[in-house]
Structure formats: structure tokens, C-alpha cells
């Protein structure tokens, strides 16, 4: 059985009674590190991560899913981790985003909304010799390669 698939089943089983939590990513690295990234509509706490870790770890050991030594890490994605699911975009409405496009362009703006297949941002556009204007842009999800929340220390 695929390790990542079994881990996903175990995580879903554990968070089934917590509809505000969701899986961001599950990766088994060749160096034996199994990383589970979880998030919540209102964030996720260390207690919830610990519960998932215990549940997954117990079942992986019981079922002997991973035959070699491994390191299990359950956490929320860091601020520098790209957004990947619509729920992550939804919880970041109102925040500034850095967006890499498929054509290589980079865009920045405040996330103001999203639909199933696009996001809407307000971005400053400056034309030569004119004052910068804030315009609303709709960006199709299939044109985005990476989106990260931008942190400002101003």
C-alpha cells in the first residue's frame, strides 16, 4: 500500500469530527521523514497536531506500514509555505499575496475574494508618468504556479 495514501486515510479518520481542520500536504521523503501539514479555518493548535501524530504513529506501527526507521512530523504549514487549497485562500482574504504566474510574471496584491476557479486581488498598477492606481484583477487558478502570503514588518 502507498504510505502517503494510508497516512491520508488515518489523518482523515482522526479529524473527521473536526470539520474546521483540513490536510494541506502529506509527503514521505526518501530520508525517512514523514511530514503531515494540517491547517484549520481558524488555524490549528499544537494539541490537535499532537493528537493526529499519536493516532497516525500508533496505526503505522500497529500495521507495520513503514518497514524502516522514520521520523513523523505533524505541523501547520509555515508562513512561507505556498497556498494550495481553496480553504487556505479563503482564510487569507484581506492579506497581501505574492503570486507567480505560469508565464513567469510576478504579481502582488490584497486577496479580496475567490471563486472555485479564480482569485480576485487588488493590486497597485503604475503606468509611466501617472499616479499608481489600485485595480481589481481576477486571476484564474490554472494560471497560478505559486501563491504565498506576504508578511510586512512596517
UniProtKB/TrEMBL annotation:
Belongs to the RimP family. It comes from Mucilaginibacter gossypii. Required for maturation of 30S ribosomal subunits. InterPro entries: Ribosome_maturation_RimP, RimP_C, RimP_C_sf, RimP_N, RimP_N_sf. One of its GO terms (biological process) is translation. This is Ribosome maturation factor RimP. Its main location: cytoplasm. The keyword Cytoplasm applies. One of its GO terms (cellular component) is cytosol. Keywords: Cytoplasm, Ribosome biogenesis. Residues 83-153 form the Ribosome maturation factor RimP C-terminal domain.
Amino acid at each position: 500500500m502507498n504510505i502517503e495514501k494510508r497516512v491520508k486515510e488515518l489523518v482523515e479518520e482522526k479529524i473527521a469530527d473536526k470539520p474546521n481542520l483540513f490536510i494541506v500536504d502529506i509527503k514521505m521523503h526518501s530520508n525517512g521523514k514523514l511530514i503531515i501539514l494540517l491547517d484549520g479555518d481558524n488555524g490549528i493548535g499544537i494539541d490537535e497536531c499532537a493528537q493526529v501524530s499519536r493516532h497516525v504513529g500508533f496505526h503505522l506501527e500497529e500495521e507495520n506500514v513503514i518497514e524502516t526507521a522514520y521520523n513523523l512530523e505533524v505541523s501547520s504549514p509555515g508562513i512561507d509555505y505556498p497556498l494550495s487549497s481553496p480553504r487556505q485562500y479563503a482564510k487569507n482574504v484581506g492579506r497581501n499575496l505574492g503570486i507567480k504566474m505560469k508565464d513567469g510574471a510576478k504579481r502582488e496584491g490584497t486577496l479580496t475574494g475567490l471563486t472555485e476557479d479564480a482569485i480576485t486581488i487588488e493590486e497597485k498598477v503604475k503606468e509611466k508618468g501617472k499616479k499608481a492606481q489600485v485595480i481589481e484583477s481576477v486571476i484564474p487558478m490554472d494560471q497560478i504556479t505559486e501563491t504565498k502570503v506576504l508578511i510586512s514588518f512596517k
